Amino acid sequence: MRHLSCWATVALQLLYHVGPATAAAVPGHRNHIGGNTGRIAPRVFIISMFTPESEAWKTSMVESGTGNLTDTKIDVPGLSMLYPQVLCTADKSVCQVTAGESEINAAASTMALVLSDKFDLSQTYFVVGGIAGVNPKYSTLGGVALSRYVIQVALQYELDAREKPDNFSTGYFGYGTKGPNEYPTTSYGTEVFEVNDALRNAAYGFAQKAKLADSAAAAEYRAKYREAGLEYVAATEGPSVVKCDTATSDVYYSGTLLSEAFETVSKVWTNGTGKYCMSAQEDNAVLEVLVRGAIQGLVDFGRVVVMRTGSDFDRPPPNITAYQHLMADQNGFATACANLGKAGVEIVRGILQGWERTFQKGIKPTNYIGDIFGSLGGQPDFGPGSQTNGTGYAAAPVQARAQMRTRGFRGASVVRRRI
Ligand SMILES: *[C@@H]1O[C@H](CO)[C@@H](O)[C@H](O)[C@H]1NC(C)=O
Ligand SMILES: *[C@@H]1O[C@H](CO)[C@@H](O)[C@H](O)[C@H]1NC(C)=O
Ligand SMILES: *[C@@H]1O[C@H](CO)[C@@H](O)[C@H](O)[C@H]1NC(C)=O
Ligand SMILES: *[C@@H]1O[C@H](CO)[C@@H](O)[C@H](O)[C@H]1NC(C)=O
Ligand SMILES: *[C@@H]1O[C@H](CO)[C@@H](O)[C@H](O)[C@H]1NC(C)=O
Protein backbone atom coordinates (compact mmCIF):
# COMPACT_ATOMS: atom_id res chain seq x y z
CA MET A 1 0.00 0.00 0.00
CA ARG A 2 1.01 3.60 -0.21
CA HIS A 3 -0.47 6.29 1.93
CA LEU A 4 0.52 9.27 3.97
CA SER A 5 -2.00 9.38 6.78
CA CYS A 6 0.02 7.14 9.11
CA TRP A 7 -1.48 8.53 12.27
CA ALA A 8 -4.92 7.54 11.05
CA THR A 9 -3.67 4.06 10.28
CA VAL A 10 -2.21 3.61 13.74
CA ALA A 11 -5.43 4.84 15.33
CA LEU A 12 -7.46 2.44 13.23
CA GLN A 13 -5.14 -0.43 14.04
CA LEU A 14 -5.43 0.26 17.75
CA LEU A 15 -9.21 0.44 17.56
CA TYR A 16 -9.32 -2.72 15.58
CA HIS A 17 -7.26 -4.75 18.03
CA VAL A 18 -8.94 -3.72 21.24
CA GLY A 19 -11.57 -6.42 20.97
CA PRO A 20 -11.15 -9.83 22.61
CA ALA A 21 -9.06 -12.30 20.64
CA THR A 22 -11.72 -14.97 20.51
CA ALA A 23 -10.76 -17.54 17.98
CA ALA A 24 -11.12 -21.16 17.30
CA ALA A 25 -10.39 -23.29 14.31
CA VAL A 26 -13.63 -24.19 12.66
CA PRO A 27 -14.03 -27.49 10.87
CA GLY A 28 -14.05 -27.30 7.12
CA HIS A 29 -17.48 -27.30 5.61
CA ARG A 30 -16.46 -28.98 2.41
CA ASN A 31 -13.60 -30.37 0.53
CA HIS A 32 -13.71 -30.34 -3.23
CA ILE A 33 -10.86 -32.74 -3.78
CA GLY A 34 -11.14 -35.76 -1.59
CA GLY A 35 -12.43 -36.90 1.76
CA ASN A 36 -13.20 -34.42 4.48
CA THR A 37 -9.87 -33.27 5.83
CA GLY A 38 -11.41 -31.02 8.45
CA ARG A 39 -9.71 -28.07 6.84
CA ILE A 40 -11.34 -24.87 5.67
CA ALA A 41 -11.45 -24.65 1.89
CA PRO A 42 -12.36 -21.04 1.05
CA ARG A 43 -13.38 -20.32 -2.51
CA VAL A 44 -11.86 -16.85 -2.33
CA PHE A 45 -9.05 -15.52 -0.12
CA ILE A 46 -8.60 -11.76 0.04
CA ILE A 47 -5.05 -10.66 0.83
CA SER A 48 -5.02 -7.14 2.27
CA MET A 49 -2.01 -5.26 3.55
CA PHE A 50 -3.26 -2.97 6.31
CA THR A 51 -6.35 -1.89 8.20
CA PRO A 52 -7.96 0.71 5.90
CA GLU A 53 -7.89 -1.81 3.05
CA SER A 54 -9.27 -4.69 5.09
CA GLU A 55 -12.00 -2.45 6.49
CA ALA A 56 -13.05 -1.37 2.99
CA TRP A 57 -13.42 -5.00 1.96
CA LYS A 58 -15.51 -5.78 5.04
CA THR A 59 -17.82 -2.87 4.31
CA SER A 60 -18.32 -3.85 0.67
CA MET A 61 -18.83 -7.51 1.55
CA VAL A 62 -21.65 -6.64 3.98
CA GLU A 63 -23.18 -3.95 1.74
CA SER A 64 -23.33 -6.34 -1.21
CA GLY A 65 -24.82 -9.15 0.87
CA THR A 66 -21.81 -11.37 0.19
CA GLY A 67 -21.14 -12.06 3.85
CA ASN A 68 -19.71 -10.67 7.05
CA LEU A 69 -15.95 -11.21 7.29
CA THR A 70 -15.99 -10.82 11.06
CA ASP A 71 -18.28 -13.81 11.58
CA THR A 72 -15.39 -16.28 11.88
CA LYS A 73 -11.95 -15.53 13.34
CA ILE A 74 -9.14 -18.03 13.09
CA ASP A 75 -5.76 -17.77 14.81
CA VAL A 76 -2.94 -18.66 12.44
CA PRO A 77 0.58 -18.89 13.93
CA GLY A 78 3.11 -16.81 12.03
CA LEU A 79 0.79 -14.07 10.81
CA SER A 80 1.62 -10.45 11.57
CA MET A 81 1.39 -9.58 15.28
CA LEU A 82 -0.81 -6.68 14.20
CA TYR A 83 -3.20 -9.02 12.35
CA PRO A 84 -2.90 -12.45 13.99
CA GLN A 85 -6.21 -13.81 12.73
CA VAL A 86 -7.71 -14.83 9.43
CA LEU A 87 -11.28 -13.59 9.06
CA CYS A 88 -13.96 -15.55 7.22
CA THR A 89 -17.64 -15.32 6.42
CA ALA A 90 -19.98 -17.59 8.37
CA ASP A 91 -19.96 -20.25 5.63
CA LYS A 92 -16.17 -19.84 5.20
CA SER A 93 -16.46 -19.44 1.46
CA VAL A 94 -14.62 -16.11 1.64
CA CYS A 95 -11.69 -15.37 3.95
CA GLN A 96 -9.34 -12.43 4.42
CA VAL A 97 -5.82 -12.14 5.75
CA THR A 98 -4.13 -8.83 6.47
CA ALA A 99 -0.48 -9.41 5.74
CA GLY A 100 1.15 -6.22 7.03
CA GLU A 101 2.89 -3.62 4.92
CA SER A 102 5.85 -4.00 2.56
CA GLU A 103 7.68 -6.99 1.19
CA ILE A 104 8.99 -8.66 4.37
CA ASN A 105 5.64 -8.63 6.16
CA ALA A 106 3.80 -9.71 3.03
CA ALA A 107 6.06 -12.71 2.44
CA ALA A 108 6.16 -13.83 6.06
CA SER A 109 2.39 -13.64 6.55
CA THR A 110 1.50 -15.26 3.25
CA MET A 111 3.89 -18.14 3.96
CA ALA A 112 2.30 -18.67 7.37
CA LEU A 113 -1.07 -18.87 5.66
CA VAL A 114 0.02 -21.22 2.88
CA LEU A 115 1.68 -23.63 5.35
CA SER A 116 -1.15 -23.50 7.89
CA ASP A 117 -2.81 -26.87 8.44
CA LYS A 118 -6.12 -25.09 9.07
CA PHE A 119 -6.76 -24.48 5.39
CA ASP A 120 -7.03 -26.40 2.16
CA LEU A 121 -6.11 -23.71 -0.39
CA SER A 122 -5.68 -25.98 -3.39
CA GLN A 123 -8.82 -24.66 -5.14
CA THR A 124 -8.86 -21.20 -3.61
CA TYR A 125 -8.84 -18.00 -5.66
CA PHE A 126 -6.53 -15.35 -4.20
CA VAL A 127 -7.42 -11.72 -4.69
CA VAL A 128 -4.19 -9.92 -3.84
CA GLY A 129 -4.08 -6.20 -3.62
CA GLY A 130 -4.41 -2.87 -2.02
CA ILE A 131 -4.03 0.81 -2.65
CA ALA A 132 -1.19 2.10 -4.76
CA GLY A 133 0.73 4.91 -6.33
CA VAL A 134 -0.76 5.47 -9.77
CA ASN A 135 0.85 6.35 -13.10
CA PRO A 136 -1.06 9.34 -14.58
CA LYS A 137 -0.60 7.92 -18.08
CA TYR A 138 -2.94 5.01 -17.43
CA SER A 139 -5.22 5.63 -14.47
CA THR A 140 -6.13 8.03 -11.73
CA LEU A 141 -6.98 8.58 -8.06
CA GLY A 142 -9.55 5.91 -7.21
CA GLY A 143 -8.84 4.03 -10.45
CA VAL A 144 -8.76 0.23 -10.34
CA ALA A 145 -6.09 -1.81 -12.13
CA LEU A 146 -5.94 -5.55 -12.72
CA SER A 147 -2.44 -6.77 -13.49
CA ARG A 148 -0.92 -9.57 -15.50
CA TYR A 149 2.67 -8.81 -14.50
CA VAL A 150 4.14 -7.69 -11.20
CA ILE A 151 7.71 -6.40 -11.32
CA GLN A 152 10.12 -5.93 -8.41
CA VAL A 153 11.52 -2.75 -9.88
CA ALA A 154 13.96 -1.69 -7.14
CA LEU A 155 15.83 -5.03 -7.09
CA GLN A 156 18.79 -3.37 -8.81
CA TYR A 157 22.10 -1.61 -8.31
CA GLU A 158 21.57 1.98 -7.26
CA LEU A 159 23.93 4.92 -7.47
CA ASP A 160 22.77 8.14 -5.92
CA ALA A 161 21.72 10.18 -8.95
CA ARG A 162 24.23 12.88 -7.95
CA GLU A 163 27.05 10.38 -8.47
CA LYS A 164 25.84 8.60 -11.60
CA PRO A 165 27.68 8.81 -14.94
CA ASP A 166 26.37 11.76 -16.95
CA ASN A 167 25.02 9.56 -19.71
CA PHE A 168 22.87 7.37 -17.37
CA SER A 169 19.15 8.16 -17.44
CA THR A 170 18.82 6.97 -13.80
CA GLY A 171 20.95 5.73 -10.93
CA TYR A 172 19.25 2.30 -11.11
CA PHE A 173 20.56 -0.51 -13.29
CA GLY A 174 20.10 -4.26 -13.25
CA TYR A 175 22.35 -6.77 -11.53
CA GLY A 176 25.25 -7.82 -13.70
CA THR A 177 24.70 -4.96 -16.18
CA LYS A 178 26.82 -1.91 -16.97
CA GLY A 179 24.02 0.65 -17.25
CA PRO A 180 20.29 1.34 -17.18
CA ASN A 181 17.72 -0.56 -19.24
CA GLU A 182 19.77 -3.69 -19.94
CA TYR A 183 18.29 -7.04 -18.96
CA PRO A 184 19.77 -8.20 -15.63
CA THR A 185 22.19 -11.10 -16.01
CA THR A 186 21.62 -12.34 -12.45
CA SER A 187 18.15 -13.35 -11.24
CA TYR A 188 17.05 -13.82 -7.64
CA GLY A 189 13.79 -15.34 -8.86
CA THR A 190 11.37 -12.70 -7.64
CA GLU A 191 11.92 -10.06 -10.34
CA VAL A 192 8.78 -10.71 -12.38
CA PHE A 193 5.64 -12.80 -11.94
CA GLU A 194 2.95 -13.36 -14.52
CA VAL A 195 -0.57 -14.41 -13.54
CA ASN A 196 -3.43 -16.02 -15.46
CA ASP A 197 -4.57 -13.52 -18.08
CA ALA A 198 -7.82 -15.38 -18.85
CA LEU A 199 -8.74 -15.13 -15.17
CA ARG A 200 -7.78 -11.46 -15.24
CA ASN A 201 -10.17 -10.93 -18.14
CA ALA A 202 -12.98 -12.62 -16.19
CA ALA A 203 -12.16 -10.49 -13.13
CA TYR A 204 -12.14 -7.38 -15.32
CA GLY A 205 -15.64 -8.21 -16.51
CA PHE A 206 -16.86 -8.61 -12.94
CA ALA A 207 -15.08 -5.50 -11.62
CA GLN A 208 -16.66 -3.36 -14.31
CA LYS A 209 -20.06 -3.94 -12.70
CA ALA A 210 -18.97 -1.89 -9.68
CA LYS A 211 -20.32 1.57 -9.17
CA LEU A 212 -17.04 3.20 -8.23
CA ALA A 213 -16.75 5.95 -5.63
CA ASP A 214 -15.33 9.37 -6.39
CA SER A 215 -14.90 12.69 -4.60
CA ALA A 216 -14.76 16.36 -5.54
CA ALA A 217 -11.46 16.69 -3.65
CA ALA A 218 -9.84 13.94 -5.72
CA ALA A 219 -11.20 15.55 -8.89
CA GLU A 220 -9.53 18.81 -7.87
CA TYR A 221 -6.05 17.25 -7.71
CA ARG A 222 -6.67 15.30 -10.92
CA ALA A 223 -7.50 18.53 -12.74
CA LYS A 224 -3.94 19.74 -12.19
CA TYR A 225 -2.78 17.16 -14.78
CA ARG A 226 -4.80 18.84 -17.58
CA GLU A 227 -1.94 21.17 -18.40
CA ALA A 228 0.23 18.19 -19.27
CA GLY A 229 -2.01 17.54 -22.27
CA LEU A 230 -2.73 14.19 -23.87
CA GLU A 231 -0.02 12.19 -22.12
CA TYR A 232 -1.78 12.39 -18.76
CA VAL A 233 -5.38 12.49 -19.95
CA ALA A 234 -6.20 9.31 -17.99
CA ALA A 235 -5.22 11.15 -14.80
CA THR A 236 -7.85 13.82 -15.40
CA GLU A 237 -10.77 11.43 -15.84
CA GLY A 238 -12.93 9.79 -13.20
CA PRO A 239 -12.06 6.32 -11.86
CA SER A 240 -12.54 3.24 -14.03
CA VAL A 241 -11.24 -0.32 -14.20
CA VAL A 242 -8.15 -0.78 -16.37
CA LYS A 243 -5.74 -3.59 -17.26
CA CYS A 244 -2.09 -2.73 -16.57
CA ASP A 245 0.75 -3.85 -14.40
CA THR A 246 2.11 -3.44 -10.90
CA ALA A 247 5.58 -2.47 -9.72
CA THR A 248 6.70 -3.56 -6.26
CA SER A 249 9.19 -1.54 -4.23
CA ASP A 250 9.72 -1.23 -0.49
CA VAL A 251 10.89 2.31 -1.17
CA TYR A 252 7.96 4.68 -1.55
CA TYR A 253 9.35 6.55 -4.54
CA SER A 254 7.78 9.70 -5.93
CA GLY A 255 8.60 12.00 -8.83
CA THR A 256 8.79 11.91 -12.60
CA LEU A 257 12.36 10.63 -12.99
CA LEU A 258 12.08 7.62 -10.67
CA SER A 259 8.61 6.77 -11.95
CA GLU A 260 9.80 6.89 -15.55
CA ALA A 261 12.86 4.81 -14.66
CA PHE A 262 10.71 2.09 -13.09
CA GLU A 263 8.23 2.30 -15.95
CA THR A 264 11.08 1.52 -18.32
CA VAL A 265 12.38 -1.29 -16.09
CA SER A 266 8.90 -2.82 -16.06
CA LYS A 267 8.88 -2.85 -19.84
CA VAL A 268 12.43 -4.20 -20.22
CA TRP A 269 12.04 -6.97 -17.61
CA THR A 270 8.78 -8.17 -19.20
CA ASN A 271 10.43 -8.10 -22.64
CA GLY A 272 8.23 -5.26 -23.82
CA THR A 273 4.81 -6.52 -22.69
CA GLY A 274 4.44 -4.99 -19.23
CA LYS A 275 2.73 -1.64 -18.81
CA TYR A 276 3.41 -0.23 -15.35
CA CYS A 277 0.49 1.68 -13.87
CA MET A 278 0.43 0.95 -10.14
CA SER A 279 3.20 0.93 -7.53
CA ALA A 280 2.84 -1.40 -4.58
CA GLN A 281 5.02 -2.50 -1.67
CA GLU A 282 4.00 -6.16 -1.41
CA ASP A 283 2.86 -7.97 -4.54
CA ASN A 284 6.08 -9.73 -5.64
CA ALA A 285 6.49 -11.00 -2.07
CA VAL A 286 3.00 -12.50 -2.00
CA LEU A 287 3.37 -14.05 -5.45
CA GLU A 288 6.75 -15.63 -4.60
CA VAL A 289 5.06 -17.42 -1.71
CA LEU A 290 2.18 -18.54 -3.92
CA VAL A 291 4.64 -19.94 -6.49
CA ARG A 292 6.40 -21.91 -3.76
CA GLY A 293 3.05 -23.11 -2.47
CA ALA A 294 2.08 -24.16 -6.00
CA ILE A 295 5.30 -26.20 -6.36
CA GLN A 296 4.12 -28.18 -3.31
CA GLY A 297 0.56 -28.48 -4.63
CA LEU A 298 -0.79 -26.37 -1.77
CA VAL A 299 -2.19 -23.62 -3.99
CA ASP A 300 -3.03 -23.23 -7.68
CA PHE A 301 -1.06 -20.34 -9.19
CA GLY A 302 -3.63 -20.19 -11.98
CA ARG A 303 -6.10 -18.76 -9.45
CA VAL A 304 -4.46 -15.44 -8.59
CA VAL A 305 -5.93 -12.00 -9.24
CA VAL A 306 -3.77 -8.91 -8.65
CA MET A 307 -5.73 -5.72 -8.06
CA ARG A 308 -4.56 -2.24 -7.08
CA THR A 309 -6.38 1.08 -6.69
CA GLY A 310 -4.74 4.50 -7.02
CA SER A 311 -4.45 6.50 -3.80
CA ASP A 312 -1.82 8.99 -4.98
CA PHE A 313 -0.06 9.80 -8.24
CA ASP A 314 3.49 8.50 -8.57
CA ARG A 315 4.64 11.74 -10.22
CA PRO A 316 3.53 15.36 -9.98
CA PRO A 317 1.39 17.43 -12.31
CA PRO A 318 3.06 20.34 -14.16
CA ASN A 319 4.55 23.16 -12.06
CA ILE A 320 4.58 21.17 -8.82
CA THR A 321 7.87 19.79 -7.51
CA ALA A 322 8.28 16.13 -6.65
CA TYR A 323 8.62 17.07 -3.00
CA GLN A 324 5.56 19.35 -2.97
CA HIS A 325 3.64 16.59 -4.67
CA LEU A 326 4.67 13.95 -2.15
CA MET A 327 3.76 16.19 0.77
CA ALA A 328 0.45 17.35 -0.70
CA ASP A 329 -2.78 15.62 0.26
CA GLN A 330 -3.96 14.42 -3.13
CA ASN A 331 -7.26 13.33 -1.58
CA GLY A 332 -7.25 9.92 -3.23
CA PHE A 333 -6.81 7.73 -0.17
CA ALA A 334 -10.44 7.26 0.87
CA THR A 335 -11.60 6.78 -2.72
CA ALA A 336 -8.89 4.20 -3.38
CA CYS A 337 -9.85 2.22 -0.27
CA ALA A 338 -13.55 2.40 -1.14
CA ASN A 339 -13.00 1.26 -4.72
CA LEU A 340 -10.80 -1.62 -3.62
CA GLY A 341 -13.84 -2.97 -1.80
CA LYS A 342 -16.38 -2.01 -4.44
CA ALA A 343 -14.54 -3.51 -7.41
CA GLY A 344 -13.10 -6.36 -5.38
CA VAL A 345 -16.41 -7.59 -4.08
CA GLU A 346 -17.74 -7.86 -7.63
CA ILE A 347 -14.84 -10.20 -8.41
CA VAL A 348 -15.62 -12.24 -5.30
CA ARG A 349 -19.30 -12.44 -6.21
CA GLY A 350 -18.49 -13.42 -9.77
CA ILE A 351 -16.32 -16.30 -8.60
CA LEU A 352 -18.88 -17.49 -6.03
CA GLN A 353 -21.82 -17.26 -8.44
CA GLY A 354 -19.92 -19.00 -11.22
CA TRP A 355 -18.35 -21.63 -8.96
CA GLU A 356 -20.04 -24.80 -10.18
CA ARG A 357 -20.19 -23.69 -13.81
CA THR A 358 -16.67 -22.29 -14.21
CA PHE A 359 -14.46 -21.56 -11.28
CA GLN A 360 -14.33 -24.83 -9.37
CA LYS A 361 -12.53 -26.50 -12.24
CA GLY A 362 -10.46 -23.38 -12.87
CA ILE A 363 -9.88 -21.07 -15.82
CA LYS A 364 -7.19 -22.50 -18.02
CA PRO A 365 -4.38 -20.03 -18.56
CA THR A 366 -3.55 -19.25 -22.16
CA ASN A 367 -0.40 -17.33 -21.22
CA TYR A 368 2.70 -18.39 -19.30
CA ILE A 369 2.10 -18.21 -15.54
CA GLY A 370 4.73 -18.20 -12.80
CA ASP A 371 8.12 -16.66 -12.10
CA ILE A 372 11.28 -15.81 -14.02
CA PHE A 373 12.81 -19.25 -13.23
CA GLY A 374 9.99 -21.16 -14.91
CA SER A 375 9.40 -22.81 -11.52
CA LEU A 376 5.91 -24.07 -12.36
CA GLY A 377 6.85 -25.37 -15.78
CA GLY A 378 6.53 -23.87 -19.23
CA GLN A 379 8.68 -21.21 -20.88
CA PRO A 380 8.46 -17.69 -19.45
CA ASP A 381 7.70 -15.08 -22.12
CA PHE A 382 10.17 -12.78 -20.36
CA GLY A 383 13.65 -13.15 -18.96
CA PRO A 384 16.48 -15.51 -19.85
CA GLY A 385 14.32 -18.62 -20.14
CA SER A 386 13.29 -21.56 -17.97
CA GLN A 387 15.93 -22.81 -15.54
CA THR A 388 14.39 -26.28 -15.74
CA ASN A 389 14.03 -26.76 -19.47
CA GLY A 390 10.29 -26.17 -19.08
CA THR A 391 9.63 -28.98 -16.64
CA GLY A 392 9.28 -26.87 -13.49
CA TYR A 393 10.71 -27.57 -10.06
CA ALA A 394 9.65 -30.72 -8.29
CA ALA A 395 7.77 -30.74 -5.02
CA ALA A 396 9.66 -31.62 -1.86
CA PRO A 397 10.89 -35.22 -1.79
CA VAL A 398 8.50 -37.95 -0.72
CA GLN A 399 9.79 -38.07 2.84
CA ALA A 400 9.30 -34.35 3.38
CA ARG A 401 5.84 -34.56 1.84
CA ALA A 402 4.97 -37.39 4.20
CA GLN A 403 5.95 -35.14 7.09
CA MET A 404 3.74 -32.43 5.68
CA ARG A 405 0.86 -34.86 5.37
CA THR A 406 1.13 -35.91 8.99
CA ARG A 407 0.61 -32.26 9.75
CA GLY A 408 -2.47 -32.30 7.59
CA PHE A 409 -1.27 -31.20 4.17
CA ARG A 410 -2.30 -32.85 0.96
CA GLY A 411 0.58 -34.17 -1.03
CA ALA A 412 1.79 -32.35 -4.08
CA SER A 413 -0.55 -32.83 -6.95
CA VAL A 414 -1.73 -31.77 -10.28
CA VAL A 415 -2.42 -28.15 -9.56
CA ARG A 416 1.00 -27.22 -10.92
CA ARG A 417 0.58 -25.87 -14.39
CA ARG A 418 2.42 -27.14 -17.38
CA ILE A 419 1.79 -25.11 -20.47
C1 LIG B 1 -20.69 -8.56 11.31
O1 LIG B 1 -20.48 -9.54 12.30
C2 LIG B 1 -20.00 -9.02 13.53
C3 LIG B 1 -19.66 -10.19 14.42
O2 LIG B 1 -20.55 -11.25 14.25
C4 LIG B 1 -21.05 -8.09 14.12
O3 LIG B 1 -20.57 -7.52 15.31
C5 LIG B 1 -21.33 -6.99 13.10
O4 LIG B 1 -22.39 -6.19 13.56
C6 LIG B 1 -21.72 -7.58 11.77
N1 LIG B 1 -21.84 -6.51 10.83
C7 LIG B 1 -22.92 -6.31 10.10
C8 LIG B 1 -22.91 -5.09 9.23
O5 LIG B 1 -23.87 -7.05 10.10
C1 LIG C 1 28.07 6.01 -21.17
O1 LIG C 1 29.30 6.38 -21.75
C2 LIG C 1 30.31 5.38 -21.65
C3 LIG C 1 31.63 5.97 -22.11
O2 LIG C 1 31.48 6.59 -23.34
C4 LIG C 1 29.89 4.18 -22.48
O3 LIG C 1 30.86 3.16 -22.38
C5 LIG C 1 28.57 3.64 -21.94
O4 LIG C 1 28.08 2.61 -22.76
C6 LIG C 1 27.53 4.75 -21.87
N1 LIG C 1 26.40 4.24 -21.11
C7 LIG C 1 25.13 4.48 -21.41
C8 LIG C 1 24.11 3.92 -20.50
O5 LIG C 1 24.83 5.18 -22.35
C1 LIG D 1 3.21 25.65 -15.84
O1 LIG D 1 4.39 25.54 -16.57
C2 LIG D 1 4.24 25.70 -17.95
C3 LIG D 1 5.59 25.50 -18.60
O2 LIG D 1 6.19 24.35 -18.10
C4 LIG D 1 3.66 27.05 -18.28
O3 LIG D 1 3.41 27.13 -19.67
C5 LIG D 1 2.36 27.25 -17.53
O4 LIG D 1 1.90 28.57 -17.69
C6 LIG D 1 2.57 26.98 -16.03
N1 LIG D 1 1.28 27.06 -15.37
C7 LIG D 1 1.10 27.65 -14.20
C8 LIG D 1 -0.30 27.54 -13.66
O5 LIG D 1 1.98 28.19 -13.62
C1 LIG E 1 14.05 -11.04 -23.08
O1 LIG E 1 14.99 -10.04 -23.39
C2 LIG E 1 16.33 -10.41 -23.07
C3 LIG E 1 17.21 -9.21 -23.36
O2 LIG E 1 17.04 -8.76 -24.64
C4 LIG E 1 16.73 -11.62 -23.90
O3 LIG E 1 18.03 -12.02 -23.57
C5 LIG E 1 15.77 -12.75 -23.59
O4 LIG E 1 16.04 -13.86 -24.39
C6 LIG E 1 14.34 -12.31 -23.82
N1 LIG E 1 13.44 -13.35 -23.36
C7 LIG E 1 12.39 -13.79 -24.04
C8 LIG E 1 11.58 -14.85 -23.43
O5 LIG E 1 12.09 -13.31 -25.12
C1 LIG F 1 18.38 -28.76 -19.52
O1 LIG F 1 18.87 -29.24 -20.76
C2 LIG F 1 20.29 -29.12 -20.92
C3 LIG F 1 20.66 -29.49 -22.34
O2 LIG F 1 19.88 -30.53 -22.78
C4 LIG F 1 20.98 -29.99 -19.86
O3 LIG F 1 22.37 -29.85 -19.97
C5 LIG F 1 20.52 -29.54 -18.46
O4 LIG F 1 21.07 -30.42 -17.49
C6 LIG F 1 19.01 -29.53 -18.36
N1 LIG F 1 18.64 -28.93 -17.10
C7 LIG F 1 17.68 -29.43 -16.33
C8 LIG F 1 17.43 -28.71 -15.04
O5 LIG F 1 17.01 -30.40 -16.63
List the helices and strands and how they pair.
Blueprint lengths: L5 H12 L26 E5 L2 H13 L8 E4 L9 E4 L5 E5 L3 H14 L9 E10 L9 E4 L1 E3 L5 E2 L13 E2 L18 E3 L2 H11 L8 H8 L9 H4 L4 E3 L1 E4 L7 H14 L6 E5 L2 H13 L8 E10 L8 H6 L5 H21 L1 H5 L38 H9 L13
Parallel strand pairs: 1-4, 1-5, 5-14, 6-11, 7-12, 12-13
Antiparallel strand pairs: 2-3, 3-4, 5-13, 6-14, 7-10, 8-9
Helix pairs in contact: 2-10, 3-8, 4-10
The structure holds 2-acetamido-2-deoxy-beta-D-glucopyranose (NAG) (5 copies).
GO molecular function, one term: catalytic activity
Protein name: Purine nucleoside permease-domain-containing protein
GO biological process, one term: nucleoside metabolic process
Would you mind describing this structure in some detail?
With 419 residues, this protein is of the alpha/beta class. The protein has one domain: Rossmann fold (3-Layer(aba) Sandwich), CATH 3.40.50. 31% of the residues lie in helices and 15% in strands. The protein is built from 12 helices and 14 strands. It has helices spanning 6-17, 51-63, 102-115, 197-207, 216-223, 233-236, 256-269, 283-295, 322-327, 333-353, 355-359, 398-406; strands spanning 44-48, 72-75, 85-88, 94-98, 125-134, 144-147, 149-151, 157-158, 172-173, 192-194, 241-243, 245-248, 276-280, 304-313. Strands 1, 2, 3, 4, 5, 6, 7, 10, 11, 12, 13 and 14 form a 12-stranded mixed β-sheet that branches. Strands 8-9 form a two-stranded antiparallel sheet. Helix 2 (51-63) crosses helix 10 (333-353) and helix 3 (102-115) runs parallel beside helix 8. The longest helix is centred in the C-terminal third of the chain and has 21 residues, at 333-353. The chain binds 2-acetamido-2-deoxy-beta-D-glucopyranose (5 copies). One 2-acetamido-2-deoxy-beta-D-glucopyranose (NAG) binds next to loops. One 2-acetamido-2-deoxy-beta-D-glucopyranose binds next to loops.
